[in-house]
Amino acid sequence: MSDPFVVVGADAAGLSAASKFRRTAPDREVVVFEKGRWISYAYCGMPYFIEGLVERMSDLLSLSPSEVDERGIDLRRGYEVVAVDPDVKRVTVETADGDRFEQPYGDLLVATGGRATTGPFDVRGLDGAFTLHDMDTAAAIDAYVAEPDEYDPERADVSAVDRDRVERNAAMAAPETAAIIGGGYVGVETAEALAERGLDVHLFHRSGHLLSDFGAAVGERVEAELTERGVTIHTNAPVDSIDGNDRIEAVAFGIGDDGTDAESLAVDMAVVGVGIRPNTELLDDTGVALGEGGAISTDEHGRTNLPDVYAAGDCATARHAVTGEEAWMPLGLTANRAGRAIGATIAGDPTPVGDIAATAVVKAFDMEAGRAGLLDEDEALEAGFDPVRETVTAGSRSGYYPGAAETDVTLVADRDTGRLLGGSIAGPDRAAVRIDTVATALEADMTVGEVERLDLAYAPPFSPVWDPILVAAKVLNGKIDG
Amino acid sequence: MSDPFVVVGADAAGLSAASKFRRTAPDREVVVFEKGRWISYAYCGMPYFIEGLVERMSDLLSLSPSEVDERGIDLRRGYEVVAVDPDVKRVTVETADGDRFEQPYGDLLVATGGRATTGPFDVRGLDGAFTLHDMDTAAAIDAYVAEPDEYDPERADVSAVDRDRVERNAAMAAPETAAIIGGGYVGVETAEALAERGLDVHLFHRSGHLLSDFGAAVGERVEAELTERGVTIHTNAPVDSIDGNDRIEAVAFGIGDDGTDAESLAVDMAVVGVGIRPNTELLDDTGVALGEGGAISTDEHGRTNLPDVYAAGDCATARHAVTGEEAWMPLGLTANRAGRAIGATIAGDPTPVGDIAATAVVKAFDMEAGRAGLLDEDEALEAGFDPVRETVTAGSRSGYYPGAAETDVTLVADRDTGRLLGGSIAGPDRAAVRIDTVATALEADMTVGEVERLDLAYAPPFSPVWDPILVAAKVLNGKIDG
């Protein structure tokens, strides 16, 4: 009997791999070690739980431990893998009680995920200051935002939750003013959530427009929507410090490179969302190759450079469909897809993990936005392209049909070859899902001329004769030809 | 000075060609002959005008005659081209007054469009019975549906409208019960329109499910939605006759191949929407080659087999992206795109008209549906494929996010090569625009395995981690591999 398939981490990538492996090779053993108590939760749903759109925290769990068990997966919660020895194909495991043992593996998947970076801010020990990257924090934020006499403890209805922390936060007076630090998608979604909960929300962003990865055209539309909904946006406003004793009292911001003085804003809540970093420490002394973003380098089948060691999810790189190079984009589908493919491969059905098109979508109140591929000028130049771009504003429906709304589409192409490199979209009327057309065209290596001739859907309630993406392709193609 | 570029027909294809030609070759002459008085109207908007969602008929005009004039296009309304002599490159034109003259051309574009077929029904002379394919009929239907004292003559605010016909219809008592004959997209959209106007609507369809071109899965969802909204659906119910003296009184239906007796339904309105046919008679004696559907055969640049004679729009074929063969799909984007490409080509910038993916979308109340490529079993077999299909029902958003709705996706692939052949989608939550992903994948000749690995957008408000299209690809791919 061969050694089992060992998975480190019981979230999207790890459990997708274990499940697919068991279905494909039902007679072989798989063990999943998870150092915490939470498994398989919907990270992306946390802002909507805080907003109150999701009633119960348990709604955010994709799989319960007993469902994992029913799949024939040996799941061990509270078991931390603390060392990997690839020479003898063995991991060292430490239990919650402090016991240690050695576990041999046939194949190993490292799916350790990522963790929120906090920048210069240490929010530990400061009530009202949070870094949103796990369910316990989401539960604590939800409790903190509620008035003590209005908090419903049934909201955090998962046994794994840190109930002491929830209760402590629920007992505090509800905040009135919140600073959100970081204008990426977590920041934008949290701004919506807290504004909908009735707070006066200030969103601070280091650079000139929100959602830097989505490009300026999208950032401006999202900023306009947030402003209209009462959120105060501070761009070019790096936060310098989060101040207070025991409980947060203020944030200081605006010390720019030009030495301008910091301003201070009194707040009774802050949420830091400045980015995440990959958890790779487990492989520190193994000779593993790290790549883009410090994540674990993987090949088209999710293999690392260590024999029989795979990596997937937020701790691993993936191949970018446009550049053909390794990239690090910690997103949900990437993790699920890579985990599933690796599970199949290890079970004997070699399956590519697939390229990423760096597709992302985000909602801010009624504004929808999407992006895919290479949008940034410097990134495109670095990848060897000569980028040319065009932003158009087009209607989302036939002009005479009620609900037609201005939709901004940006497309970027390579001047020499005409190849589509990337695109973004923003608008209130079904804009986000349209980015899938761009993502598909990118994965097919289409030129912008080919995009211009796509036979996209037309009917007055859904699109004008020339879909906004076709309009952008037409104009950009004219610019390249001209 | 060379002879002008002559265009026959001033609708989407003709005016797109003339406009692009003038922009590309501003010094050259273009003449557009239009036998009627209407130009450049939004055919697809007519049901929404009848529904009352569009307030004024003039909202449906893309271009006014004076705007055409401002583009430097010599537009002659009331001028019918009655003959083409390709040997001497000359057309014969007859004016509304009955005068005739010869017009030489350098290049000729035939953009004569299509006309509604009426099946066995002659609705002329029968008040309350209509065939919806032109603006005068849309105006007449709108007037007929209104109570005489409630009709607003400002609705039909276009000088070209047949005002006598409008007034005669407006004066009649408003109908209570309408039969719609034909369950294609015109029939479905008109059913919605008349039901929203308060009529008791019966929709008759010859075959077993509505929207035959969209496949059974879509037809069933649309039928359920129409039924829920109070429309009575009669499938497998060919209408035998439309009966009445002066004004319509009843429709007889249900004489099947099995000799079942016809039933009669008392109605005071009927709309026939059983299909359209291409207007090709102008080229009858020229040796022009006709293709699929009896439409004028064209090549990748829109050329017919006659020298310097092009055809575009509802009268012409186009190349199908999946089969590579000629196909006839009279749709709005195809006409606009081909016209524009032909205008550029004739002006000296050779531009392909582009393949069609046979993409179509339709709305029935809150149900959205789309289709692309080859869905029909027999059509796929005929094109040399071994079709295998799968229909899945998946959520439109993360399950915990409000508004998630069941979305049905059907994908068809070739068993031998795995190539995607077609797809359809139906659901109430942003389903229609998602068909663009399928259309793009079809134009890129993707396999269903490649579709399964597409990096489509994920965020809880817009899509589950696995987009419904990815779910369908996953299941279909498993079926092919298995």
Automatic annotation (TrEMBL), chains A, B:
The species this protein was found in: Halorubrum laminariae
Key words of the record: FAD, Flavoprotein, Oxidoreductase, Redox-active center
Phylogenetic placement of the source organism: Archaea, Methanobacteriati, Methanobacteriota, Stenosarchaea group, Halobacteria
Protein name, per record: FAD-dependent oxidoreductase
Chain ranges of the Pyridine nucleotide-disulphide oxidoreductase dimerisation domain: 361-464
Cofactors: FAD
GO MF term list: oxidoreductase activity
Domain FAD/NAD(P)-binding, residue spans: 5-318
Pfam families (alphabetical): Pyr_redox_2, Pyr_redox_dim
Domain of life of the organism encoding this protein: Archaea
The family this protein is said to belong to: Belongs to the class-III pyridine nucleotide-disulfide oxidoreductase family.
